[in-house]
Amino acid sequence: MMEAYDRFELLVNDRVVKTPVAIASMAGIVDAAYVLERAAHVGAAFIGGYSIDGPTLEASRQMAQEGRKEFLYDDPLETLEREIDVLKQSDVVMGINLRGSTPAAYAEVAGAFGDRVVYEIDAHCRQPAMLEAGCGEYLLEHPAKLVEIIRALKSADVTVSVKIRAGVAADDRDLAHTVWKAGADILHVDLMDYGHNKVRQLRNASPLMLIANNSINTFDRAMDAFSHGADLVSLGRKSDPWTLAGLDAAITRFADEGGWYNAPKQLCRGGDVRALAFCCMPVKACPLIPALEKIGLSRNEYLKIKQEAVKGTPLDDGKSTCFGSLAWCCKISSPCMFRNMTLEKKGLSTREYMQCKHHLAEKIMHKLFDEETGDESS
Ligand SMILES: Cc1cc2nc3c(=O)[nH]c(=O)nc-3n(C[C@H](O)[C@H](O)[C@H](O)COP(=O)(O)O)c2cc1C
Ligand code: SF4
Ligand code: SF4
Question: How many angstroms is it from 10 CA to the middle of ligand 2?
Fold first, then answer.
């Protein structure tokens, strides 16, 4: 059987994610026991939300009185310790969804558990009591505070996820860029009704690992999110074992057959920035030209990035293809005799070809984002 890393090439918190399906937090419902019952079918899980200081614990109590499900306790660290311990032996990468009223409250939790878990900031909750306590969606309207929290967590050198609701911040793209620059690792986005256009928009705004969420309960919806930039999908309300098992099986089958499970659509078919890996040389009037202009990349820079990125890889070859190298060749789903003949001659399977394109896309993303100038958020 193929090793999980080879199949999805996905790491979170330095651990292999065995399938790009996650459980999203639901306060009062998703705890470690809930995850254990579903552990065979998910690669990651965010338990909680857990309130972690006086004001947010008080907000939880108020919300519970108003009839909402909440986890209630007096000692957050003791409760979290118990939950983390339950999942210690599991192969599910664990995150804890947290609501705190100050950066220091988050830092204290990170100090207690270090790199054992991913720390997810709940910038999603819209219950008035939580907003009053200065967390949840409040943070999307006050990004400076969100940045402070991210930095407080990162100063403990831990993996940070930010859970957001799309359409609340002044501009979701700016928010993605800001949280990335502040040091966050993961953007977990409840897409609401925005669909794949929002996924693409966020993918194009930062290199953060992207988890797409909201009613992504079928293989088709998961693939739609993947092909526009999502790295994982997460499920809340429909995170029953049957739905999760079906999704996991279908996505795994797809990856085993096709290679790059979250390959983008080609640029001219609405693909995100990673689709540059499938684009030709910039020699004709097509959507590549305005896309390069939007990114701020000259045609020469684009040529150089791809040429350098494929050096020494199987994509460097391909004399009988349109542009003399597989670097410029289309997605495997676009039929092409010349590319396929080249692949056959090289003994490269379609799966391996797509894997090489995946690595090329990662190098392109690295060039476009990580080599940007340093921290802008100070
Ligand atoms: C009962 C309930 C409680 C939730 N609690 C939280 C929470 O504590 N923190 C959080 O970030 N999201 C919370 N969410 C949001 C979910 O994680 C998810 O974003 C949302 O339900 C949409 O995804 P779905 O369609 O897969 O359910 C909650 C959702 C529900 C239904
Ligand atoms: S370069 Fe090719 S793949 Fe890219 S947008 Fe133009 S026609 Fe489409
Ligand atoms: S050889 Fe085929 S796959 Fe390669 S760029 Fe030309 S049409 Fe596309």
Answer: 27
Determine if ligand 1 sits within 6 Å of the CB of residue 26.
yes
The per-residue pLDDT for 378 is 32
| 330 CB within 6 A, ligand 3 | yes
pLDDT in tens, 155-187: 999 999 999 999 999 999 999 999 999 999 999
3 state SS of 209:
strand
The two tokens of residue 332 are 């495997």
Q: Work out the burial of residue 270: count CB atoms within 10 Å of its CB; fewer than 13 is exposed, 13-18 middle, 19 or more buried.
A: middle
* Share of the chain residues as helix, strand and coil, in percent rounded to the nearest 5: 50, 15, 40
Asked whether 338 lines ligand 3 (CB < 6 A), one says yes
Which residues fall within 8 angstroms of residue 43, CB to CB, at 6 or more apart? 4, 8, 10, 17, 18, 19, 20, 21, 22, 92, 93, 232
| 124 Cβ below 6 A of ligand 1 | yes
Domain ranges of the chain: 4-258, 267-370
The pLDDT value given to residue 372: 62
Q: What is the mean pLDDT of residues 128-140?
A: 97
CATH superfamily for domain 4-258: Aldolase class I (3.20.20.70)
Model confidence pLDDT, tens digit, residues 228-253:
999 999 999 999 999 999 999 999 99
Q: What's this model's pTM, rounded to 2 decimal places?
A: 0.96
Å from CA of 49 to ligand 3 middle: 49
Query: Quick check: CB of 259 below 6 Å from ligand 1?
Result: no
Ligand 1, atom 28, lies closest to the CA of: 26
Q: What is the mean pLDDT of residues 7-16?
A: 97
